[in-house]
Amino acid sequence: MKKLFLHVLAVSLFCFFSACDKGFEEMNVNPNASTTVVPEYMFTKALLDGVSFNYVGAAYLTIGGSMQQTATYKEVPAAGDKYFNETYSYNSWEAYSTAVIEIKKVIDAVSANPEDINKLAIARIWKVLIFHRLTDLYGDVPYTEAGFGASNQNYTPKYDVQATIYNDLLKELEESANALDPDLPTFSNGDLIYAGNVTKWRQFAYSLMLRLGMRLTKIDATLAESWVRKAIAGGVVMNDNDLARIQYVDGSQVAQRNFIATALLNTDYLNPQAVDNIEGGKLAKTFIDHLKETQDPRLNAIAVVWVRNATGTYVADTSSAIQKGMPNAAFNSFPADFASYSEPNPNTILRYDAPHLVLTNAETNLLLTEAALRGWYDGNPAQTYEAAVRAAMHQWSLFGQHGEISEARINFYLSQHPFNNQGTFEEKLEQIYTQLWVSLFLQDEYEIFANWRRTGYPSLTPTNYPGNLTGGTIPRRFVVPLTEESYNRDNFNEAKQRQGGTNALTSRVWWDPAN
């Protein structure tokens, strides 16, 4: 995708400068740079940074390990595997601030122009995605005063209450979806997801509304129902062609390449991988066992074991029988059979030109299935569940021929695992969100983590590694970095007291109460 690199490259040309005193203004200005934001370029950068922040530390090591999709034998990177390290959650705070600042600059740049209604609406929708991930990870965070450091020199922003943040995020989605106008300009090629298609952005907005509305079921079911019904009425992503994705290319510049493939190939999954690696990671036993036991055809698209062929060359073998997940928190030194454990498939997940799936119809159909169970949606839960499974299988074809799953295999899987119409509500919920756990693997660990905290599914057995930081319980929140306590002490302490007086992996966000 040639446009991807052009937009990323162009962003570097648009910087901000503050004038110096005592006549040195001219010396402080780069004559080759612009002092004005070009919204299309900055929006491209905000899209890329909004999905890729601190991927290894946050999504792969912390969430992937705690949700038992990945495992490591080492201690230092074992934030999720052994609940042993808070540092990775600090890094997400800093990394996400970049996207926050970028999307604020876009919004500021387009707000004054009446012709930029669509650009403003789409930027506001993307702002919701950035902030809902941030607040879902940390709880109370700076929101109304976030991103004002450069413009207002406000380096100690207040922390907003998460309930207030959620109310505003949902309002932003509703107002932005209503404002979209197909007759007005958009970001066009600067939009790497939908190329400015306002119909699809409206669906994206209502899909986010569905996601956030369903997030409230534990804390305020009445409010949750109201927003879920509004999202469904507005129209969510339902079809394969409408899912939100960023298509990367195998280019010479890192910014062109899929950030997941780039990150994992630079850490654990050098190709071929048959010996030790940087983070000591493999795919986890809980995850691989589930795929094997259910005869899930996605196993062959997801996992490989490196084996020697007759010439002594290592090849990636996708055979189901040899796939083996590494147990979480089982080792503290290099295991002798390390090479025999499963890794991500280099021909799908670890391709530099793999897409990144931002929001899929697999997720929306699973949320609709729960909504139907609750009586908030008139659809048939068995039908939306089947649609979700089919969508989740189909999306692997976007990763190339090695990800393609035949309709015959999909049909067989569904025949063996139909929707549990006769089960209890909890049994049905477990089926829905175990399916989401598989469907969003490596694409959206944040949603896997959020839905596990909200529903308790999939059912996972915690590890209890010696010296862990959680008392042998799965982490429930990221930890705000200690720098906030130093540089924004009053606001940080106020937020900490509101959230139970602790800043720890065992703390809970507002929508995840303990009872």
Automatic annotation (TrEMBL):
Signal peptide feature range: 1-21
Keywords carried by this UniProt record: Lipoprotein, Signal
Keyword Nucleus: no
Listed name of the protein: SusD/RagB family nutrient-binding outer membrane lipoprotein
Organism of this sequence: Olivibacter jilunii
